[in-house]
Amino acid sequence: MNEADSQRAAALLWPAFEPGDSPETADVVLINTCSVRDKPQQKLLSELGRLRRIKERKGSMIIGIMGCVAQQMKDEIFKRAPWVDLVVGPDGIDDIPQLVAEAQQGQHGASLRLLRHAPSLDRSVEVKTQRSSALVNVMKGCDKFCTYCIVPYTRGREASRPPHVVMDEIHNLVQQGVFDITLLGQNVTAYGNDLSPRTNLNTLVTNILKEAPSIQRIRFITSHPMDTKDDTLELFALPQVATYFHLPLQAGSDRVLKTMGRGYTFRQYMDIVEKVRKIRPDVAMASDFIVGFPGETREDFLQTMDAIETVGYEGIFSFVYSPRPFTKAAGFEDPIPRAEKLVWLKELQARQNEITQQKFADMVGTVQPTIIEGPSSRDPNEMMGRTSCHKVVNLPLPKSAIGTMIDVRITEAMSNSLRGEAVAPDADQ
Ligand code: SF4
Fold first, then answer.
1. What pLDDT shows up at residue 113?
2. Are 234 and 277 in contact (CB under 8 A)?
3. How far apart are the C-alpha atoms of 57 and 45, rounded to whole Å?
4. ω into residue 152 within 30 of 0, thus cis?
5. What's the 224 CA to ligand 1 centre distance in angstroms?
6. Pocket of ligand 1, candidates 2, 34, 149: which has the most ligand atoms within 8 Å of its Cβ, to mutate?
7. What per-residue string of b and e applies to 404-429 under the rule 16 or more CB within 10 Å gives b?
8. What's residue 365's pLDDT?
9. What is the Cα 251 distance to its own chain's centre?
C-alpha cells in the first residue's frame, strides 16, 4: 500500500519532478513510512540524520516525510528534525505538490488531517509505468481495531474508492500495457460496504475483468477472515484471479485470537481455507503471524505451530509482537521475556521454511504461466518472473521477454525461488 501511495505522490509531482535515483542528486526527497512495527520508525530517525548531512553538503534539498509515522509523530518530526520541510499523513498525499511548492518558498508545511473521505479516494491519477504489473488502491483504513494494531489510528476508518475511479486508474494502466493488477486495501474484503449503493469485491473484480478484458492476472490483498464471504471465495473460480490468497491468521490459539480482537476462531478460519481449496485446489495460502502476544503461553504458541502444519502455507510473514502507541494491547500485561519470544519466532520460521521448501519442490515438473518482470538479481543474463502463486522463477530468456506472460516449466527448487525453462508454444505439455 505504501508503494502505491509513493507512486501516487510521484504521479502528482510529475512533470515538475521526475523520479530520481539518489538523494545526492535529488531536489526533493520524500520518505514514505510505516508504523505497523517499531523498527521502521527507528530507521526513519537514523535516515533523517543521513539526509541532513546531504542537505547541508548540497546547500538545498526539500525533505518530506509521508505515511503512517508522519501521521503518528506529527509535529514531533519538526521538533526532532527541523531540517524536514513537509510532513504528510496518508490522507494528505494530494496536498504534496502544494506543500513542495511552499517548501520551495522556504515554508514548513504539514497535512495531517485524518479524513473519513480523503480527496485521493475520489480522484484518479495517471500513474506512469513501463511495467506489466501495477498496484491499485481500492480502499483505505480499517474498522476492525484489532487490539495490537495502529492502522485505524494512522489510516483512519474504512473508506472505499468508487468503482468508476478504480476503473479510470485501471484503464490508464491498461493503455500503458499493464495486464497484471493487484487491488489493495488494509481490509480489501470489506470493499464497498461503505459505498452507496453498497457493492462488494466480487462485483468490482468481475466488472474490471469485463471492462478491461486484456487483464490476464488480478490479485487482491489483504483479506480479513471475518469479511471473507462466499462471494469473495467464488472469485477464485475465475481463471484471471491469481492462485494466491493472503489471509492473515495471526495466531493458532482461540484464546489469543480473542485477546487480539480478531473475531474468529481457528475452526472458522479453516472453514474458509477448505472452501477456497474446493474452488481452486492449487491456491497458495499465505498469512501473517504475531508471536509472543501479551499473555501468550507456550501452549498457545504450539497451536500456532500446529496451525501452519494444518493449513500448509506457501509462505508467512511473522514477527515478534511489538507494542504500538494508542492500541489496547499496549496496556496488556506481558510476562513473557522477549528472548523467549525470539526463540519461538525462530522455531516458527524454521518449520515454515521446511514447509515452503516442500511446496517449492512439489512444483518441479509443473508448467506455470509466468509474468517476466525483468533481469534476475542473481544473474543479470537471466530473467526473473512470477508465477500466479507469486513465486519467483529465474530462467534463461532474452530481454525482449520482459513484460510478457509465458508458460514456464519448473526445473528446480532453490531455497527462496524456482528455476525454470520457457515452454515453446507448440511443445507437447
Ligand atoms: S484488520 Fe488488519 S489493519 Fe485492521 S485493525 Fe486488524 S490488523 Fe489492523
1. 84
2. no
3. 19
4. no
5. 8
6. 149
7. ebbebbbeebeeebbbbebbeeeeee
8. 97
9. 20
Q: Of ligand 1's atoms, which has the minimum distance to the CA of residue 152?
A: 5
pTM exceeds 0.85, yes or no: yes
Output the nine-digit C-alpha cell for 299: 501452549
Q: How far is the CA of 229 from the centre of ligand 1 (A)?
A: 17
Cell of 334: 506481558
Instruction: Report how far Cα 224 is from the mean position of its chain's Cα atoms.
Output: 14
Ligand 1 mutation target, pool 184, 186, 317, most atoms within 8 A of CB: 186
**DSSP string of 322-370?**
---TT-GGGGS---S-HHHHHHHHHHHHHHHHHHHHHHHHHTTT-EEEE
Pocket test for ligand 1, best of 72, 155, 187, 223 (most atoms within 8 A of CB): 187
Element (H, E) at 207: helix 201-211
Confidence at residue 429, expressed as pLDDT on a 0 to 100 scale? 43
pLDDT category at 426 given cuts 50, 70, 90 is: low
* Residue 43 confidence (pLDDT) above 90: no
Helix (H, G, I), strand (E, B) or coil at 261: coil
